[in-house]
Amino acid sequence: MPIGAAWDTLLVTPLVNLLIALSAIAFGSFGLAILLLTLIIRAVTFPLTLRTLKAMKAMQQLQPKLQDVQKRYSDPRRRSEETMKLYREHGVNPLGCLGPMVIQMPVFFALYGVIRITLGNTPESVLELSSRLYSVGFIQNAVPVSTSFLWMDLGEQGGFFLVALVFASMWLQQRISTSRSQAAPGTQQAQMNVMMQWMFPAMFSWVVITVPAGLGVYWAASTIIGLVLHWVFVGPGDFTWGSLIPQRFRPEGRPRPALAVSGAGRAPTNRPGAEGATEAGDDDADRGSQRQDGGRGGRPSPGATGAQSRPGRRRRHQRR
Amino acid sequence: MFHVKHRAVLAFGVGFVLIALLTGCGGVSSPEGWAAPVDAGDGIVIVSDKRGELSALRVTDAGASVLWTFPGDGDDRNYRAFYATPIVDRSGAKPRLLVASYSGHIVSVDLETGQPTAGWPREVSVGGHIVATPVLVDDTLYVANAHGEVKPVDVVNGVVGQQIARADDRIWGEPVFDGGVLYVGSLDGTVRAVGADGSLRWRDDVGGAVAGDLAVEGDSLYVGTLERRLLALDATTGAERWRFSSDGWFWAKPLVTEDTVYAATVLGSVYAINRATGQEIWRAEPGSGEMRATPALAGGALVVADRDGRVFGLNPSDGSVLWQQEQSGQEFYASPLVQQSALLYLSHDGTLVRVRPQDQGAISVVYERG
């Protein structure tokens, strides 16, 4: 069987019929059908997700040793070998976290086709749908489905609120899954984390702008479920809700909150100076640590603000 | 470090592939249209194509030549597609075409030149996509749109009146006007009978979405639904006379004769149904392609065409296949134009083919859109 036909027969057509059947169950609402499908897919992939979350937790617990390796070995090759050795010794697969995403990707692509087929507003798309439906009265009679859900037309491109929801949920997921304290400050890893935290949600938001809103609903719902699972089974890492407040709006002299405790029962606090760091300091942790790596003096003392550390930088510019 | 690098590379890779694939495919499916060819007299046939253009063809036995195309060169208006069959209006000084586009516009086109008719607005909007062929009654064109509205348009001056009917979903099937009453079916699963003044005579819930054209014959209204049922309703009261269940959606307009109703489903089945009782006379499955084109009686055969480019001649009395022809690569959605000795089918890509039922369905290409 050619790949295209297999893709259609094994994934797209069953999903079309499943969604139509779910919409019939969900009082004719295709939006609710998408949410039900998301729950089903998440339930089916839950064992894999759980394994992945456990792997992530193990990775978090391994961080002190990993950073120790990075400190100890300056040769990148040796460092890499020792890192891999550490992974092997502790039975951790560094790529294990990608499992659910890799599993979800074919579903996401298939769902794109499914939503185009199912929610198409043109007569041709409805006619096309007829050739996909199983000969089951319950399914056949449920067409055409209603394309409106909440404030959206699921067949049209996603609007601002949906895009904002996708961005926010993905940002938060990235934020808690790449806990800042996991990365040695100033390292490529830390920079990569920050980049991924913004770029990844931005890319998906762009996709959601360009595709039918139904797909955005699926992705947002799936991400939020993933977020909840991560929070429950791994914990939020060093993320606190207070850190979302811009620094200038935070009350001065506010007592330092303890870092959020991860699901492991202990926050990863191996970063130099991270113990008891203020949220303000935490916000600037990466910038501050870059300065430390650059040999430009120590990390700003607890409570020091970005403004206090700037004069030194300004002086260097003047020297140049 | 190792794992983060790989994770980042993979994540960005997936993201870019996703963007490339999804945005490259476009967001939502685009309309292509399936208006039936129209006989404009004097050997002229009007055809539409996927590009949202209409062409006037002079059709002869040897082939066809293009007289004009609308919109013409230099006219950048985009009507997207034509599902509604253009209407030839000869009531005025000059014959014209009344064209309803998917973009929601009504345009009056001079039949001789293909230019917008002088003295009429350049185009008139009815506020929603138009799929259903409008109905012309005297000087009023009743236009149904995708918002479920039916609006009258004065064809003398192009003024759009207040809606006279409103359904809860799209109207895709051609309404019919009979005895001073307009009958309208909608995807919301209802059929309405409305007076010309907008007064509701009756409203009937038929169970499934009505996507196809309605047919009225005598005092009965025939309605096909996507719930796989064909119903006969009393045109005066809306009372159900009979309902016939099948294996697939009824989208093609049924063909009603003196004692039989012929109907095709999108699963490719053709039914002959007793017009008085609603009982099945015969059932045929000549092919497997979806059927959306209305069946036609010509040359002693019941002619049906499907999406696989096949045309079948069936024996009207028992449904046996008398002949079959194929125009490979073509899809037939549009209903045929029945002429004296032939049927003209317009394929989905704009190819006009002639089928001669009396000659075992001999099929030939009349015109191919370049």
Characterise the protein shown here.
The complex is a heterodimer of chains A (320) and B (370). Chain A has 320 residues and is an all-alpha fold. Chain A is built from 13 helices and two strands; from the N terminus they run H-H-H-H-H-H-H-E-E-H-H-H-H-H-H. Chain A has helices at residues 3-25, 30-44, 46-72, 76-90, 99-119, 123-130, 137-140, 160-177, 188-210, 213-233, 279-283, 285-293, 306-319; strands at 148-149, 152-153. In chain A, helix 1 (3-25) packs across helix 2 (30-44) and helix 1 (3-25) packs across helix 5 (99-119). Chain A is elongated and about 65 Å long. Chain B is mostly beta strands and 370 residues long. Chain B has a four-stranded antiparallel sheet with strand order 1-2-3-4, with no helix packed on it. The radius of gyration of chain B is 22 Å and the shape is globular. The model of chain B is unreliable at 23-27 (pLDDT under 50). Classes of the chains: A mainly alpha (320), B mainly beta (370).
DSSP strand tally of chain A: 2
- In the predicted model, the low-confidence regions of chain A spanning at least 5 consecutive residues are 255-320
- Low-pLDDT residue intervals, each spanning 5 or more residues of chain B: 23-27
The spatial strand order of the largest sheet of chain A comes to 1-2
**Class computed from helices, strands and strand pairing of chain A:** mainly alpha
pLDDT averaged residue by residue of chain A = 72
Shape of chain B: globular
Share of helix among residues of chain B? under 10%
What is the N-to-C order of secondary-structure elements of chain A (H for helix, E for strand)?
HHHHHHHEEHHHHHH
N/C terminus separation of chain B: 58 Å
Question: What is the number of helices of chain B?
Answer: 1
Number of strands of chain B: 32
Shape of chain A: elongated
Quote the distance from N terminus to C terminus of chain A.
67 Å
Biggest interface goes to: A-B, 54 and 50 residues
The main sheet of chain A comes to: 2 strands, antiparallel
Q: DSSP strand (E) fraction of chain A?
A: under 5%
Largest sheet entry of chain B: 4 strands, antiparallel
Global Rg of chain B: 22 Å
The overall pLDDT average of chain B reads: 92
